[in-house]
């Protein structure tokens, strides 16, 4: 019990230090005139997500009265916007890159069974239903598997999958038999995961991924380098991405015992620079997609200036 209390106190201290770092950090989207974005909910309605400096603090939420259940970091506007929009986030007026683990929960389960992931775990070689293409099928399988890991039964997994889909979408109209076909096709390729589906393992896996996130956040907080988490992905200043990739590798080795594969959404300039001499065509093609080419609105510059004035006045 004493050791548990020490761990809880440490978690609180770590979280306080992280939030203190975030309080000194300007996080915004420079292409926005007004500091909010709209997102479409599954019921068809739209919701405004404020993008401002009061919406950047996080907390850890545990579940079922158990410190070993869930524990993920919640809060921060970046968790409530689409991935494409997250690419436009700037931290302290610097462009960012997002790096995420590939199929993290499935990868953790495989690692516990001493099975290593090879390739994209959610892509299978055949089309299950002709009405969806490969890309659409992968999205269906990924969400269905993640839902099944969290569910107690197939019936509840299928119902939860449909509930999450937008009204009027083809995915929402999939019946149990069709969803079961997708699940069976996935298990043909990944038979080791059968016992983990529809067995309520998700809440425990969330705790494991929260431990990984905690290791990563604590490392960067100690260095005074802000980092943002979206459970199994992390957003950092574009020229710090190499540090992040290394930290993600070290974190999974520490928590899970193996290095779990990660991928980044874009390449940084320092990563691209070696290609300038060795592959000029590739360099010229990729340089157009480098982070940091966003037009900054006048309103964004004003928000940044207000933040810097407020920050400077509070340190006097």
What's the short story on this structure?
This protein has 316 residues and is α+β, with helices and mostly antiparallel strands.
Order of helices and strands: HEEEEEHEEHHHHHEEHEHHHH
Count of distinct strands: 10
Unreliable segments of 5+ consecutive residues: none
The level of helicity is 40-55%
Mean pLDDT: 92
Distinctive features:
alpha+beta; six-stranded antiparallel sheet; 12 helices
Topology:
Elements: H1 2-23, E1 27-28, E2 36-40, E3 46-50, E4 59-63, E5 66-74, H2 83-86, E6 90-91, E7 94-101, H3 104-112, H4 134-150, H5 154-164, H6 176-189, H7 202-223, E8 228-229, E9 233-237, H8 241-255, E10 262-264, H9 269-272, H10 275-278, H11 280-287, H12 298-314
Antiparallel strand pairs: 1-6, 2-3, 4-5, 6-7, 7-9, 7-10, 8-9
Helix pairs in contact: 1-7, 3-7, 4-5, 4-6, 7-8
